[in-house]
Structures are given as structure tokens and as C-alpha cells.
Amino acid sequence: MPTFYIKHTTEYNYSDLVYDAASQMMLHPIQDEYQNIASHTLSITNNPNIESRKDFFGNRVATFMIIEPHNQLAIISEIEAVTFEKPLPEDQAPLAQQWDTYHQLQYNPLFMDFLSHKPFDGSFEISAFINSNNLRSLTPYRAALALCDYVYNNFKYIQGVTDVDSNLNDIWSLKAGVCQDFTILLIQMLRMLGIPARYVSGYICPHNENSRGEGATHAWVEAYIPFYGWLGLDPTNNIIANQYHVRLAVGRHFKDCTPVKGVYTGQAEEDLFVKVEINNSKTMPSGPVFPYSHGEHVHHRNSYRQSLQNIPNQQQQ
What we know:
With 317 residues, the protein is an alpha+beta fold. It contains five helices and 15 strands. The protein has two domains: 3-83 and 257-310, Immunoglobulin-like (Sandwich); 95-255, C8orf32 fold (Roll). The strands form three sheets. Strands 1, 2, 3, 4, 5, 13, 14 and 15 form an eight-stranded antiparallel beta sheet that branches. A five-stranded antiparallel beta sheet has the order 11-10-9-8-12. This is Transglutaminase family protein.
């Protein structure tokens, strides 16, 4: 039953004054029987009014506006989270009965989006791997672990080779990426096998010196296992996500879970800086600021005709 204190700072710096900035945040952590949020505070430049709602997936989505001119926007989220270990699947139900469960979910609106997928450059090779290893002869739990192991062992963890807009074809061609890329790939593979899979955004907390993804927002997968529920799989570290993973949001893909995104009026170049600090005590250490860029400054000519999706956020590491 570990307790984690998380401070997540997102800072935008603009080369000129901007105004009428509208932002959306998905920084409210999930509260359930395995994750108790003892406290959560948000501090935002100019102290704007924050409105919130629940989305289709049950995430808390918050929005705010800053009308007055400004050249910096800082959002600081501070969380005290107590996590509990989730028991693993017993995996005792008959094999055929488990796989038949998925046929019943194909037209269930709660699962349809988590089964949907499109062909891409690696589809043939993935299908060949599934068939050659006869994964459908395993229980869904064991098959999901095998796919997680495949991603971990066949793709290199290299920061900076992809960005927030990289797609499956890019990742497959590079055979490398970060947690966001590993997650996107494993979701595709699970769905091709017929296992519902969803994207999870959150944090991986320090517990192993070899853990990848610390010091930034993290991403992993949840696969739906019959007679059990959603099982967290972290392909970046080839582990089952449990009490050291703090969940922020779930969705079909990254865009459903983007921590911060928004639009503004003005013609300015934008720099984004992110810092995530995680500790086991309330005294937060002073850590480095982690810059996320896409090669050069992004020059936006924003207006409210643009979608909120169009402004890039930090890639999950």
C-alpha cells in the first residue's frame, strides 16, 4: 500500500503575447478501489475558473480560459495517491468459454471502440506471429502476456526518434520509440487477436532502478480479460501494471487521454516544458525540467476555428 506524492508541472512560454487561451486538462487521477486519491490540487497562471465533467470513458476532464494577454502559462498538478496491489487473474475458466466471451462483446457499446483497428504495414507479420505461436490456444491472459513480451523484445526504447504525431507505420519502420509508441503497438496487436485493449495515461513511480518512463507522464495498456476485468500491461518495461502505476485517464488512444491541450489567439512561437517529480514523502525534491520539442519551435496562428486536437502536447515517455 505505497503512497506517492506527484508534482506535474506543464509550462508554455510564448515568444509574444497571446490571449483568449482555452485549455483542456486530463490531470485528475482515477479514483477506485485500487487507487485512492488522498488529495489533488491544481495551480494555474492567473487562477482561472475551472469547469469539469466526466467523459464517455469515465475520465474527469477539466477546462479553463485565460482571456487577458499573457506570454506564459503554467499548470501545476499535485497529487497524493495511495495505491493497492490488484490480484492477478485466476485464469481457471475453460479456454473456449473465455474466448467466446469476446464474441459477445463485439457489439457491446462499452467495448466496440476497444476492439476496432485498421490494417497497417506490420499487420501481416503480426498475424503470422499470432498464428505461428498459436496464441489462440492459450488463455487470453497468457496470450496478452506473450504479445507484451514480443513488443518489449523486438522494439528498442529510444527517446527522440518519434514524436506525438508518430503513427503505427512510423513505429513499425523504426522498430523503436518510447512508451506511447510501445502502447499504441500493443493495443493494435491485442485488438487483432480479438482482445479489447485501451490506452492508459499516468505515471510510473520509482521502485526499480531499471524502470523506463520515469520523470514524465507514462503510458501503458489495459487488456480486458474474461471473468477478471481490465489488466494493466506495461510493454515498455514488460511488466504487469499494478501498484507502482498511477492512472490518470483511459481511452481508445492517446488523444482521448492527452494531459493538456488547447488553443489561443495570437501569432507566437511556443515552447513547452514539462517536469514530473515523484516521491514517497511530502518533501518534493528539486528536479530538472524536461523539455519536449519536435525539432524546432512550432509557430501557431491559432483561432477558435481550430480543433483543440491541433496543438501538440508532450509525448509520453
